[in-house]
Amino acid sequence: MTQQDYNWLLENRHILYSSIRMTPQQGAMIFTIYNRISPKYMAYTTCGSCVRTVISLLRQQFEKYTTQK
Question: Beta-carbon neighbour count of residue 9 at 10 Å?
Fold first, then answer.
């Protein structure tokens, strides 16, 4: 995860910890970050289970990055 990715997630951490409606730009960004850190590519989609999978991985990586700082 890059510092820029971390900063974006920090500013938008409500996406990681609560079920909210995201803007299309936020949705595209979480998939962009996911594709940078995951070996499995996933195209942007609004599929609920796909979004939960992406958010779950991002939350884990965000917390891991936070504890390493």
Answer: 21
From the centroid of its chain, how far is CA 33? 6
Please spell the DSSP secondary structure of 9-59, one letter per residue.
HHHTTHHHHS--PPPHHHHHHHHHHHHHH-SS-------HHHHHHHHHHHH
Backbone angles phi, psi at 5, to 5 degrees: -60, -45
Q: What phi, psi does 38 have (nearest 5°)?
A: -105, 140
Q: pLDDT tens-digit profile of 33-48?
A: 999 999 999 999 999 9
pTM attached to this predicted model: 0.89
CA 63 vs CA 18, 34, 67: distances in Å: 15, 14, 6
